[in-house]
Amino acid sequence: EVQLVQSGAELKEAGQSLKISCQGFGYSFTSYWIAWVRQMPGKGLEWMGIIYPGDSDTIYSPSFQGQVTISTDKSINTAYLQWSSLEASDTAMYYCARRYNSVSRPFDYWGQGTLVTVSS
Amino acid sequence: SSELTQDPAVSVALGQTVRITCQGDSLRNYYASWYHQKPGQAPVLVIYGQDNRPSGIPDRFSASNSGNTASLTITGAQAEDEADYYCSSRDKSGNHLDVFGTGTKVTVL
């Protein structure tokens, strides 16, 4: 069974750093892109960026370029999303999602989400 | 990056049919995928490509495309279909960027 399991909720202060994780189970982790998606409270889904664990090729949305870093450790089937200096506006739910290898590129499996709360 | 626009909210009577639309330039060249999201839960893929449903998704969900508009139709809406619905597609640049629609709240009356 394919699963993406994310790390637990985080409560941080503005200016702190943070790295959250997404571990894949039940499939070839290196063969599928993993995306990170932000959902601010009461708002819609925002595509942040994506990484291919096979070769660590990474693409960022222009809106998030320079604001976060996406990485992977394929030896433990895990993708990461990190911030060097959090802001209160980073408060949101963050999902990882596997992108299926078809022409339409759907996100077929999702993690349970990691709630990040940043106090100012 | 591209934009995908959806109506903010629609309502449908129990058992009736509702269509949700997603508009954007990238849809002239690329198919959309559709997700529903219930409160407190992660999104779930319901339709992708021309009209493909993942295992476990009922056949009352169907998709269609015309010009710059993708549509998701729920035929015979059930109470459990009440959710937020999002489309996604490739960015019109055609590289590995993707984009989500603005989302539609579907209420089943």
Provide a brief overview of the structure.
The complex is a heterodimer of chains A (120) and B (109). Chain A is mainly beta. In chain A, 0% of the residues lie in helices and 53% in strands.
- Report low-confidence residues of chain B grouped into runs of 5 or more: none
Tell me the total number of β-strands of chain A.
11
Assembly status: heterodimer
Order of helices and strands of chain A: EEEEEEEEEEE
Give the end-to-end Cα distance of chain B, rounded to a whole number of Å.
36 Å
Mean pLDDT of chain A: 97
Q: Per the principal axes of the C-alpha atoms, what is the gross shape of chain B?
A: globular
- Strand coverage percent of chain A: over 45%
Number of helices of chain A: 0
Query: Major β-sheet of chain A, in short?
Result: 7 strands, mixed
Number of strands of chain B: 10
How would you portray this structure in words?
The complex is a heterodimer of chains A (120) and B (109). Chain A is an all-beta fold. Helices cover 0% and strands 53% of the residues of chain A. Chain A has strands at 3-6, 10-13, 18-25, 33-39, 45-52, 57-60, 69-73, 78-83, 92-99, 107-110, 114-119. In chain A, the strands form two sheets. In chain A, strands 2, 4, 5, 6, 9, 10 and 11 form a seven-stranded mixed sheet that branches. Chain A has a four-stranded antiparallel sheet with strand order 1-3-8-7, with no helix packed on it. In chain A, a hairpin with a 7-residue loop joins β9 (92-99) and β10. By secondary structure, chain B is an all-beta fold. In chain B, strands 2, 4, 5, 8, 9 and 10 form a six-stranded mixed sheet that branches. Chain B has a four-stranded antiparallel sheet with strand order 1-3-7-6, with no helix packed on it. In chain B, β8 (83-90) and β9 form a beta hairpin. The model of chain B has no long low-confidence stretch (mean pLDDT 94).
